[in-house]
Amino acid sequence: MMSVEVERKFLFSADTLKKLEEIGALCIGQTQFHDQYFDTPEFDLTLRDTWLRKREGCWELKCPTAPLGEQCEAAALCTRYKEITSLADIQLRVQEVIKDRDTETSASLLDERWLSKMNLVCFAEFTTVRRSYRLQQEGVKIDLDQADFDYSVGEVEVIVPEGGDVQSALERIEQAAQKLGLNGDKRIEGKMDVYLKKHHPQHYMKLVSEHIL
Ligand code: V4E
Known about the structure:
Elements: E1 2-10, H1 14-22, E2 26-39, E3 51-55, E4 58-64, E5 78-84, H2 87-97, H3 113-117, E6 121-135, E7 140-147, E8 151-161, H4 166-180, H5 191-199, H6 201-209
Antiparallel strand pairs: 1-5, 1-8, 2-3, 2-6, 3-4, 4-5, 6-7, 7-8
Bound molecules: Thiamine Triphosphate.
């Protein structure tokens, strides 16, 4: 139930679609999903770079991973997050992160009372239309996202199972980025950056000043 998501974001245009075709990326379909992100009113989770999400009824928690040793320059453009999808494990981790707060330990798995017990409220929600592609040789997935607040962003992604080879994932993402002709060296804003800037500008500034975004 635990894996590491390694990804690199990029900005895309109509040319990207042509490029995907040229390099033989396999189109694996289009989906639409609604995301809700939760935190305490004081943002205890996101200020610890911990992102609690409900997507189409499924819970997921993204948390920081231990730092890798020496990395190539290209890896600096990638993010790595541990992904937890078991609700029991999510509740335990959230409890740990906000443990200094007065929360109950026995949360019900059966309903959503655990959210109010842990003082969690929805701070962001939006819908995304996603077109997905696969690059067989590199074993990476490429998603092109269009959010409902007029922001589009792409990502090259590898999900590494627990104990798997994160270094190889970083290298394969770099190879795919070269094939796609991604040559920028700047961090690309994710959907959350743009959403928070608009809806929670003070919290956004705080996350930037803490180097979380
Ligand atoms: C980890 C994180 C957030 C949670 C959402 O992550 P993201 O991968 O951006 O969203 P999405 O919809 O592509 O999720 P997927 O379908 O891949 O599971 S929101 C902010 N962060 C931190 C973060 C960061 N510090 N830098 C970058 C470039 N992205 C995200």
